[in-house]
Amino acid sequence: MATEVKLPRLGQGMESGTIVRWLKTEGEAVTKGEPLYELDTDKVTQEVEADSEGVLLKIVIADGEVDVGTTVAIIGAQDEDVSALPVGAQGENGGAPAAPSAQTAPASAPADDDAAPLPSDTVSHGEEAANAPIAPEAPPPRAAGEHVKASPLARRIARERELDLAQIVGTGPEGRVIAEDVETAAVAPVAAASTTQPEFEVVELTSTRKTIARRLTEAWQAPVFQLTVTADATELVATRERMVELLREGETKPTVSDVLMRLVASALIRHAPVNANFVDGKLHRFAAANVGLAVATPSGLVVPVIRDADRKSVLEIAADRADIVSRARGGKLQLADLESGTFTISNLGMYGIEQFIAVLNPPQVAILAVGSIDDRPVALDGDFAIVPTMTMTLTCDHRAIDGSEGAEFLRDVKAFVETPALAL
């Protein structure tokens, strides 16, 4: 019996998602648990798996934004009649009816939305005039919030180049935006606003950027304070170098950040007030340290989480970090990779930044900003010496952490950095 494939809710607060592309075609066999299509949410783009087995009888919505709970496809037995099934129904929150599938386009439309038909070179001059293609009329202006019809390739190019599809005139069937339209818009010169205003480019926020903006605005509302220490990183660097020397074939080479994460995780277990979330006026303190690592990606900053960092070796953390960073930069993170974090580390040392202040990552109550390791002169035994030092700044939510609690935590982190054996 045929079943409707509905857009799932992949996380708290998710109301809709954007179908990027289908990984199966109509008439193709589908196995339960097999990737069916790619879905872009406000956090990640991930593959959605089929929850039933059979044949993909119909793709109801080929691409575009869809409300949670909306039917996007039908799976059933081969040659099963699905004409009686109600499709294109509204999602859980109402909204516009589902867009027609690309497979149900009029027969007169070109087979490939992104390939324009070429005029024949063999017709006579008279025939050429008679059969000359008529330029399509420009579609009427889109209403605010109106669904934009666009091919999957066009959506992907627009997302990569941070272009607003609503501002692009579509030349495909029924005003559909195709890849060529996006390419043309991407290279079009930016018009000067006026003789007194410099030229500028308007860049629409991607879904990831919108999420970053929303979360950092939330963070800015919290009463915060910062604490800073500078630690001697001699033993931290030496510990990492010794680990590299003892690596076996196939093991991931640990970075200084991997060692630091393990040390910070040990300190978090000792200081429950710092290893916490502030949710609806209540504190959630955790027994395990799930440490998030701020990662820069082409679409914006994401914070994937390494779970149970306090219970893992540095080499295990290194392997997890290499995998999660690679998937983050390749746009392959799953929603589960970003959830359940209890603390965040933001390291800009590789960019030569000596010291900075990181913004909270709500609902977490603290974040550690790590600067570069540089040789600096320090007082040592009544004399001056040049040693590698590292500056760390802890930002705390004062609703959850008092100054003394933050100071004690940072004191332990400094002690662990200077003597890693205390934590490892």
Question: Which key phrases capture this entry?
Answer:
single chain; 424 residues; alpha+beta; six-stranded mixed beta sheet; four-stranded antiparallel beta sheet; 18 strands; 23% helix
Could you walk me through the main structural features you see in this protein, from its secondary elements to its overall organization?
- The chain has 424 residues and is of the alpha+beta class.
- It is built from 8 helices and 18 strands.
- The strands form 5 sheets. The protein has a 6-stranded mixed sheet with strand order 9-18-17-16-12-15.
- A hairpin with a 2-residue loop joins strand 10 and strand 11.
- Helix 2 packs parallel to helix 3, helix 6 packs across helix 7 and helix 6 packs across helix 8.
- The longest helix has 16 residues.
- It starts with a strand and ends in a 6-residue tail after the last helix.
Q: Can you lay out the helices and strands and say which pair or pack?
A:
Layout: E1 3-6, E2 16-22, E3 29-30, E4 35-40, E5 45-49, E6 54-59, E7 64-67, E8 71-76, H1 125-131, H2 152-160, H3 179-187, H4 207-220, E9 224-232, H5 234-245, H6 256-270, E10 276-279, E11 282-285, E12 291-293, E13 295-297, E14 300-302, E15 305-306, H7 314-329, E16 343-347, E17 366-380, E18 383-397, H8 403-418
Parallel strand pairs: 12-16, 16-17
Antiparallel strand pairs: 1-8, 2-4, 2-7, 3-6, 4-5, 6-8, 9-18, 10-11, 12-15, 13-14, 17-18
Helix pairs in contact: 2-3, 6-7, 6-8
